[in-house]
Amino acid sequence: MSLDVSEDLLHKAEAGEVGDADFIDCVKQSLPFAWELIAKVVNDLKNGVVSSSGSTQFADNTTPPPDEQARGQLLRVLASDAMRGALERHYGVKLAFQNCHRIAAFPAAEVDSDTYRKFISPRGQLLNQSPELRDC
């Protein structure tokens, strides 16, 4: 199961639409590693921290998760359109993802930039591969 849904939140969902704030809180409580990692990357972006490729146009994480549970959290939050979309709206960014750990945050206005297109391209994916990441 991806999320720990409280009875109250489940009742809200059964009765109608659930707002982003309630959904975001559920994600934050259910997937703390993923939440913290994404928050760090977004904070790095907003503070102008240089990415692993030397760019200040985006911020990224290149450190693998510490264990399989953490890796699973990251995969679940980024594989879900609902969770990923809610996080992007919450932070005002576009999230991009490679491998099991390389996540990047781009300003929403940069989605059509060359830097973003390079990051999400097949070439970008291939260049981010290495034997030690094959089973991640």
TrEMBL record:
Pfam families: KH_NucS_shadow
Annotated region (Disordered), positions in chain: 50-69
Bias kind Polar residues: ranges: 50-62
UniProt protein name: Uncharacterized protein
